[in-house]
Specification:
Layout: E1 6-7, E2 11-15, H1 21-28, H2 31-34, H3 49-62, E3 67-73, E4 81-87, E5 96-100, H4 109-124, E6 129-135, H5 139-148, E7 151-161, E8 164-174, H6 175-181
Antiparallel strand pairs: 1-2, 2-3, 3-4, 4-5, 6-8, 7-8
Helix pairs in contact: 1-3
């Protein structure tokens, strides 16, 4: 199945495309965006980082291993990317990741995107659960998982993130827990 277009009250989640590279390159050159991401991402971000990322990611999408959405504002006729959310249904350790441009933080956009992608994962793909990870100090990501009804299943010490080595928390969100707690995102 190809990455579908998903819509929320204020957002359109559309499939990413190679044309998004310049916008990703601009947004990713921001410490507040990247600091809690995996250390496997090069930092400082290289000049061709976004294009390299998209070429690799688009091949994973074509293979059916990944769904990746550009998060865009519904009222933006240019459909300009403000962040990314992805779903890795076949990854045995981590099924969803996301980031948002810092100027769009604390406006509830990621909560809306999470609802759309979780609904897709559970109600369209029929997944039984999602495994989700975050650096322990990343409180925003932590709160989203708690609010969704996810439960901590493992804490790993000394995991490398761009901003340093921290404990990593793995959560499990079941379809049932999501359906019980989805209303927490609609307030």
């Amino acid at each position: 199945m190809k990455t579908p277009i998903l819509q929320t009250q204020r957002l359109v989640l559309r499939p990413i495309e190679l044309a998004d590279a310049p916008r990703i390159q601009i947004l990713f050159d921001d410490w507040e965006v990247v600091k809690w991401l995996a250390a496997a991402i090069p930092w400082p971000y290289p000049a061709d980082g976004a294009e390299t990322f998209l070429q690799h990611t688009l091949s994973e999408i074509d293979n059916g291993d990944r769904y990746v959405w550009a998060i865009t504002e519904l009222d933006d006729p240019t459909s300009k990317l403000i962040g990314i959310i992805d779903l890795f249904p076949k990854n045995p350790d981590d099924n969803r990741g996301f980031w948002l441009g810092s100027e769009f933080h604390r406006q509830g956009y990621m909560s809306e995107a999470v609802v759309a992608v979780n609904d897709f994962a559970f109600d369209v793909l029929g997944l039984e659960y999602l495994l989700l990870n975050n650096a322990e100090p990343n409180l925003g990501s932590h709160r989203l998982k708690e609010k969704s009804g996810a439960e901590v299943v493992e804490v790993r010490d000394d995991v490398p993130f761009i901003c340093g080595r921290f404990r990593s928390v793995q959560w499990k969100l079941t379809r049932e827990a999501w359906h019980r707690n989805r209303h927490n995102f609609l307030k």
